[in-house]
Amino acid sequence: MPAFPIARLLRATLLVLLLISAPAAAQTASVSALAAQLGQAERDVTAVDRALDGPVDEDERPVLRAKALAAQESATDAAGRLQDQLALVDAKVAQLGAPAKGASEAPDIRAQRADLARQHAALDSAVKRGKLLGVSAQQLVDEIAQSQAAQFGERLSAHSPSPLSPAFWRAVLLSAPRDLRRVSAFLGDGVAQMRVQWRGRVPWQALLGAAIFVLVLGPGRIALWRVGQRFLIEGAPGHRVRRSGYAIWRIAVGTLMPLLAGFSLVQGVRWSRLEAPSWSSLLDGLIAAMTFAGLTAAASGALLMRSQPSWRVASIGDAAATRLRPFSLILAALSFATITVDVFNRAVNASVAARVASQAAEASLHLLLLAATLLALGKLRAEQASDEQGETTRAGLGAVTLLAWLVVLVAGLALLVGYIGFSLFLVQLVAWGTVLGSATYLLMAAIDDVSTSLFKRSSATGRTLVRALGLRGSSVDQFGVLLSGVLRVVVGVTALGLLLSPFGAGNGVSSLFGRLGTLAQGVEVGGVSVSPGTIVRGLVVLFVGLALVRAFMGWLEGRYLPATDLDGSGRNSVSLVARYVGVALAVIWALASLGIGVERIALLLSALSVGIGFGLQAITSNFVSGLILLAERPIKIGDLVRVGTDEGDVKRISVRSTEIELADHSTLIVPNSELITKSVLNKTLASPLGRIQIQFSVPLGTDAARVRAIVLAIFTAETAVLDDPAPSAFIDSIADGRILFNCFAHVETPRAAYPTRSSVFMALLGRFADEGIDIGTVPQRLEMIAASPRDGGRERERGDARD
């Protein structure tokens, strides 16, 4: 397997970034400059095409791909700018209009029309040329990807004799003398170079590099860890931020310090001229090996936090962290050895048999390490299950463990049957996936902790935003959660792009940036170019539109409507309609900024009308009914209404439903269509008055005039009863020896009818008791009739017959 190409990936990434950012830096360009840009893109595409005609080295492929992507983006950018210039020329031609038949134009108009025609032809040709270059560049990128995929497939499908067969070791032994001579010559070149440069002087640069190497890897790395921990304890807000920040700090220090140490050591050797020309790739490989080993040890150490369990981010027990930490250090050492051996084999140009033997040894060591780790985990889970009295473990962990054992089984069988490259790929993919997954998990946790802690209503930033911008606290919290989600998605996508990059199966970072650069040019969807720039512009326009709607609503509700003669319900109706109209206009404005015209919106609405007719009938009916309620106002906020058997006060009217507060303080939500199509009793629509009705009866011999006078006097004495309309008392009927009275009075509001009626009853009961007036119910008489002897005999006969 090839060495982990960290330096190559970094160089390719920087090249892609520089080439992508170059066209974007120019804001405006003349036609000649755009033509020159197209010429350069054409030369780059031609150079990549010619390079692909011959054999391409694995290190050159990412550079060629990045160059093709940059040329594609440059050509597409120039074509887009030239298209804008062409549109301006077309507008000028349209302004001139078509020449009139039979009429001669002025010479200056004819000259201008001819000049515009030449400009149109030149620009149209350049636009077509730029689009063709973009297509050609994309074809080259696809060709590079296909060749890379084919090479990766060949590497995985390569078959050699089994390491258990004599043929395998026979090939190794036969090539051993030649390999030993190559190694001896390689080492001899290095020793000879050192002897030449050592004579007569002390290589102080190499000694200084070695001293820096020791200081950086030892005291420097530990000191930086402690400094970061002390700073986080004193300055970072919240335990979660300190904990995740320290994990990221440990990964950064653990990765960069070995990189700096290795670079110092190698650079000291080079400055002292102790490096033989053939040793250059080996020294670069040593830096890459130290960096990746440092990343492996740092990521696993930051995840486990064996010696500092209170700073641990992941939910891992102390026993598991202690048990797994040695395996992570062995994995770091094994990664360093694997990369170094692969680089050494390339440097000395080792034979195929030697490289295959090295790969077999690397695969075997990785398999042993993976199997030992899984056995340790299984033993730990068994101990925890026994301590917890048979408690089952999580299904996710069991599935991952089963998958890892399956990888061990497949990789072991592949190694035994001779598919050594495939076996090594599987175990190294697990190792790299573990390291990458650990770093990604910690980075996502840090992003979530920082985002949700920084943008929180109770934080200093949150309070500043609430006071300065007038935002609600929930809006600040929501922004923090959304920011965390977006950033974690970006990190996850980047991690997926990096998963296969070390093995040559994917284009890694350069492919990711290349796809992002292509996406930045926009995607045509239904004739509308959708790109990150247009999406951001649309969101900004929507935000500005909603802000203007909010400002207008504040003026309307706070200044204008209070100055009108409208009541509260009328103001609510006007405010609600204005808000919906404003939001609709803001949405249309945002869609127009995306290039979606009103005619497209109308077409979309006409297409949606079919769905509305079938699936959204109820919602549409409620919406239209809400508009009718707001316009005609048969029911207003504050009215006392009865819907069916429920009675209460109208508290809110929206375009979909109406909220009615019942007597028990519960809320009845009624669809607006129910209020329009069915009978509704509105007790306060025409008149605000309420009426009470009292009915009772007295014996027939009672003085009816006296009773009537008492009722009217009590009505008059009750403060809630109105004098106009005046109270009244009527004799309703005379039946069953009693006189039935039906009495009426009015109060200010229907809501006061019930308590006033109760007060009048209380007063009447007391006054009638004092006057000796009986208002009891009509007495009922029950007569018992004895059965005749004949009937009794018949009953006895019936009983005997039944027996």
Biggest sheet record:
5 strands, antiparallel
Task: Tell me which oligomeric state these chains represent.
Answer: single chain
Count of helical regions: 23
Helix fraction by DSSP (H/I, runs of at least 4): over 70%
How far apart the termini lie comes to 106 Å
Instruction: Give the DSSP E fraction (strand runs of 2 or more residues).
Output: 5-15%
Q: Could you tell me the number of beta strands? A: 10
- The whole-number mean of residue pLDDT values reads 80
Helix/strand-derived class?
alpha+beta
Radius of gyration, in Å, reads 45 Å
- What global shape is seen? elongated
Order of strands across the main sheet = 6-5-4-3-7
Q: Overview of this structure, please?
A:
By secondary structure, the chain is of the alpha+beta class. Among the domains are: 6-157, Methane Monooxygenase Hydroxylase, Chain G, domain 1, CATH 1.20.58; 189-454, no CATH class; 635-682, SH3 type barrels, CATH 2.30.30; 690-771, Alpha-Beta Plaits (2-Layer Sandwich), CATH 3.30.70. Helices cover 71% and strands 7% of the residues. The protein contains 23 helices and 10 strands. The protein has helices at 6-25, 31-53, 60-96, 107-157, 166-198, 204-235, 239-271, 280-304, 318-348, 352-387, 395-417, 420-454, 460-469, 473-499, 508-520, 532-560, 568-593, 598-615, 617-632, 672-677, 704-717, 753-771, 789-802, and strands at 523-525, 528-530, 640-643, 646-653, 657-662, 667-671, 681-682, 690-699, 728-735, 738-747. Strands 6-5-4-3-7 form a 5-stranded antiparallel β-sheet. A 3-stranded antiparallel β-sheet has the order 8-10-9. A two-stranded antiparallel ribbon has the order 1-2. Helix 16 packs antiparallel against helix 17 (568-593). The N and C termini lie far apart (106 Å). Mean pLDDT is 80; it is low at 1-28, 507-516 and 795-803. This is Mechanosensitive ion channel family protein. Residues 128-187 form the DUF3772 domain. It is found in: Cell membrane. Residues 1-26 form the signal peptide. Belongs to the MscS (TC 1.A.23) family.
